[in-house]
Structure prediction request, 399 residues.
Amino acid sequence: MPLSHGRPYLAIPGPSVMPDRVLQAMHRPAPNIYAGALVDMVDGMVPDLRAVARTRHNVAIYIANGHGAWEAAVANTLARGDKALVLATGRFGHGWAEIAQRMGVEVEILDFGKRAPVDVTRVEERLAADKAHEFKAVLTVQTDTSTSVRNDVAAIRAAIDRAGHPALYMVDCIASLGCDRFEMDDWGVDVMVTGSQKGLMTPPGLGFVFFNDKAAEARAGMDLVSQYWDWTPRANPQEFYQYFGGTAPTHHLYGLREALNMLVHEEGLEAAWARHARLSQAIWAALEAWGQGGPMEMNIAEPSIRSHSVTAVRLGAPNGTALRDWLSEKAGVTLGIGLGMAPPGDPAWHGFFRIGHMGHVNAHMVLGVLGTIEAGLEALGIPHGPGALEAAAAVVAKG
Prediction:
């Protein structure tokens, strides 16, 4: 008998759970898009977006998902024939590289596999070897959503500086902004991209590109940037419509305003980072306990390099898919697929799942997911160690 009739829970790494307040803020008639309250609201939202990115510099807002933000960042900084170095720690590093290649950029990928972070020594060596400074940009992700590895953004910046390389440093924070500590200015990031649907707790549809003066200079040297992707009028609009390259995404903006109220003005960014860290530790404690008596293991073994927004798990085929299906059908919980962890068509693909714990998430939501996972393991007869829920509860009980 299914016990899934009730409110479903989306425990995937984006789109994340939307707060009722965000959804209610969106539930209103269409506003005046030429003057008045909407215009004032967006003007007031820009400082809050900068606060979340920890930057005093520019932000451009696009009606797009994260892939659109990737393309916007490339379109404003790299011309056909330019070279970029991409540091890949999972599927999404490769995804950004593919976008750049389709736009005519010559890409070199340093691939660090699916279970390790960027090796800054290799980065420094490669950039030091680029005596002619052919690389115009270095691209990487803070959290790769597929593997759940968390890269040390500041350490990569230091490696670029030790090599004496002038390349733009561009970071994808789509899965980490608002969840893991990120300091754009203090860590020396020139361009950062993110989306609305994860730590920012707003439905998919808004992409953001933050950029500093060095990146703006690179844009000024470009001889062709299409009108839609050009970040200059979006970051410095003379008319309201220029924020968005046309009609404003009105109801997304209402939702985002409420989400920023919650994140910046009520909880506070530092507290949100601490909340994500503690809830992640509760999940890890449960996974470690289950793994003592069965095949379950976290994809990233070292806690210090695990994401605080998503955890990728190895369970062996066909257990990963079987568990996801059971939770969806019987308990109303959706876990994330094992994205990019095995080649297409390889049965090993069925051995993975991911738990999303980003944005609007708290203790009872996490403990509920863990409880249903344990029920699924029991129902399917998948071997697992005891004490997982007790271990997670003990982490939560620390305060």
Summary: Residues 31-251 form a domain with the Aspartate Aminotransferase; domain 2 fold (CATH 3.40.640.10). The longest strand covers residues 135-141.
